[in-house]
């Protein structure tokens, strides 16, 4: 993941290929361009907050691993490893088998889910980051990202898979009393 994010910071001219707005045009974490598929056929765009979260995720080796062994995902037929950069004690109170923890993670929390194949190899990475109040009030101000194992954001029919990803809302809305998170089963921690 480091090489991709480093490329964005070292070679600002390359950002123009990734970001449809030119440098200094006002595109920032407050705009709603990324990950929402608003302009079909438009160039993929990374906002400042997207870039910051992808860079932060590149330091995943410094995060706390929550599960002791790969655990079954609550939202698919695959195993995951879950890592978090903030207070692991709070995050460990959230479990997919129960709800109502009332835990609210602090702004700046970044959760990394390594999606694993049958051999335990990372096939993709899903990210959630707690943004500042107002980032996305419909879902607890959470930012989402989906990358390949190297950290490059993936795309689908709606565009880059970073930002306010409405496709993630339907699974996470029922988890409102757990700050919209699934956590890791208590038995797997």
Describe this structure in words.
This protein has 189 residues and is an alpha+beta fold. It has one domain. It has five helices and nine strands. The protein has helices at residues 2-10, 12-18, 48-57, 88-91, 166-172, and strands spanning 64-65, 71-72, 79-84, 110-116, 122-130, 142-147, 155-156, 159-160, 162-163. Strands 1, 2, 3, 4, 5, 6 and 9 form a seven-stranded antiparallel β-sheet that branches. Strand 4 (110-116) and strand 5 form a beta hairpin. Helix 1 packs across helix 2. The chain is globular, with a radius of gyration of 16 Å.
Briefly, what is this?
The protein is of the alpha+beta class.
H/E element order? HHHEEEHEEEEEEH
Please give the count of helices: 5
Determine the fraction of residues in helical runs and give it as a percent range.
10-25%
Count of discrete domains: 1
Number of strands: 9
Query: Mean of the pLDDT scores?
Result: 80
Distance between the termini: 26 Å
Overall radius of gyration: 16 Å
What class do helices, strands and sheet pairing give?
Answer: alpha+beta
């Amino acid at each position: 993941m480091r090489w991709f994010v480093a490329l964005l910071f070292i070679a600002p001219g390359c950002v123009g290929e990734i970001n449809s707005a030119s440098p200094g045009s006002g595109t920032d974490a407050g705009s709603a361009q990324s990950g929402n598929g608003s302009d079909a056929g438009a160039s993929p765009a990374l906002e400042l907050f997207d870039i910051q979260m992808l860079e932060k995720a590149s330091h995943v080796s410094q995060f706390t691993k929550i599960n002791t062994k790969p655990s079954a995902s609550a939202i698919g037929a695959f195993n995951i490893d879950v890592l978090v950069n903030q207070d692991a004690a709070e995050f460990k109170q959230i479990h997919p088998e129960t709800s109502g923890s009332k835990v609210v993670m602090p702004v700046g929390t970044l959760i990394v889910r390594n999606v694993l194949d049958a051999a335990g190899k990372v096939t993709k990475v899903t990210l959630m980051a707690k943004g500042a109040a107002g980032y996305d009030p419909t879902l607890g101000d959470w930012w989402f990202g989906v990358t390949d194992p190297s950290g490059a954001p993936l795309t689908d029919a709606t565009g880059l898979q970073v930002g306010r990803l409405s496709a993630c809302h339907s699974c996470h809305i029922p988890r409102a009393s757990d700050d919209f998170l699934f956590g890791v089963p208590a038995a797997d921690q």
